[in-house]
């Protein structure tokens, strides 16, 4: 088979051959845009020998490109029907090597993955691992938090997601997209947006456009220390409870004493009419330090 899986003709042929119906509840939108697929591989900076976890390989369009670029791929998928399709449609040999040495499929919900156990014997866990995925959009943020909280050392996460979420992840302070999600993620990882992909590049076509984002864990020394992340994220959420109101207003429930509140705001070096979206990560860390931990 010379035509790549991710070309529209080949994807349509696979869909017809297996009488497939894309499962909406599993976020199945298959990417049929070779430029976008190659853009993802490039954004992930795939090198021969890279160890890649793929989430939701679908019918294998991205998997195939990752393998051709020289990656070893461990994929998590939940749709049982795709098992047979992937084994039939992926090339039997890639770059002269048999597929089973380069590709392993695990039928499991990514949010239940136990990486150390699942990957043992296939990946060298002492070496860095990349994650590359055209995500199932209904669980984009749970997946990001799950990966971030896992014990694996990731060199980068290259994730295609709905454009709106990508904009929130990469937002700068002072913009409308900046909010609790931005802050929770940017506290842990650097975020860089790559290509935008039109909804017409998928079968079936989703309602929204997509973007590819590369997340890189920040080195320990450049991370702002957050003593209690759960408390921190809760305080940030409360500060944004009413986005259009001032920080002072939003802080009322957390710090009922107005003198304390105004003293804290002034210690941040900002005007008392400041709005939550104007504050930096560092200033939120300072606020969280001054709010009692919820019991
Ligand atoms: N990688 C393919 C592509 O680019 O065309 C398919 C991407 S499609 C947007 C998302 C894939 O994730 C589907 O194949 C779906 O079955 C799978 N999926 C959905 N929920 C999942 C979960 N919890 N864990 C692993 N895979 C999941």
Automatic annotation (TrEMBL):
Location in or out of the cell? Cytoplasm
InterPro entries registered for this protein in UniProt: KsgA/Erm (IPR001737), rRNA_Ade_diMease-like_C (IPR023165), rRNA_Ade_Mease_Trfase_CS (IPR020596), rRNA_Ade_methylase_Trfase_N (IPR020598), rRNA_adenine_dimethylase (IPR011530), SAM-dependent_MTases_sf (IPR029063)
Q: Which residues bind S-adenosyl-L-methionine?
A: 29, 31, 56, 77, 109, 134
User: Entry's SMART domains?
Assistant: rADc
Q: Which residues form the Ribosomal RNA adenine methylase transferase N-terminal domain?
A: 36-219
What is the top-level taxon of the source organism?
A: Bacteria
**What protein name does the entry list?**
Ribosomal RNA small subunit methyltransferase A
Q: Which organism is it from?
A: Lactobacillus helsingborgensis
Organism placement in taxonomy: Bacteria, Bacillati, Bacillota, Bacilli, Lactobacillales
């Amino acid at each position: 088979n010379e035509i790549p899986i991710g070309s529209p003709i080949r994807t349509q042929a696979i869909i017809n051959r297996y009488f497939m119906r894309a499962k909406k509840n599993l976020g199945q939108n298959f990417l049929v845009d070779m430029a976008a697929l190659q853009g993802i591989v490039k954004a992930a900076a795939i090198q021969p020998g890279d160890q890649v976890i793929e989430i939701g390989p679908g019918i294998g369009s991205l998997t195939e490109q990752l393998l051709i670029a020289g990656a070893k791929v461990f994929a998590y998928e939940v749709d049982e029907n795709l098992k047979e399709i992937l084994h039939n449609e992926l090339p039997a040999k890639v770059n002269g090597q048999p597929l089973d040495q380069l590709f392993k499929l695990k039928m499991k919900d990514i949010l239940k993955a136990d990486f150390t156990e699942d990957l043992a014997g296939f990946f060298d866990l002492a070496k860095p691992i990349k994650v590359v995925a055209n995500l199932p959009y209904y669980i984009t943020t749970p997946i990001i938090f799950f990966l971030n909280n896992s014990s694996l050392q990731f060199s980068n996460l290259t994730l295609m997601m709905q454009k709106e979420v990508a904009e929130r992840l990469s937002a700068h302070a002072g913009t409308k997209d900046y909010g609790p999600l931005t802050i929770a993620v940017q506290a842990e990882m650097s975020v860089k947006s790559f290509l935008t992909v039109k909804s017409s590049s998928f079968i079936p076509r989703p309602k929204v456009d997509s973007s590819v984002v590369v997340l890189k864990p920040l080195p320990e020394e450049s991370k702002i220390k957050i003593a209690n992340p759960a408390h921190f994220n809760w305080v940030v959420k409360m500060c944004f409870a009413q986005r259009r109101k001032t920080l002072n207003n939003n802080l009322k429930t957390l710090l009922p004493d107005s003198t304390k509140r105004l003293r804290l705001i002034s210690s941040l070096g900002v005007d008392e009419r400041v709005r939550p979206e104007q504050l930096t990560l560092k200033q939120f860390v300072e606020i969280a330090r001054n709010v009692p931990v919820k019991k």
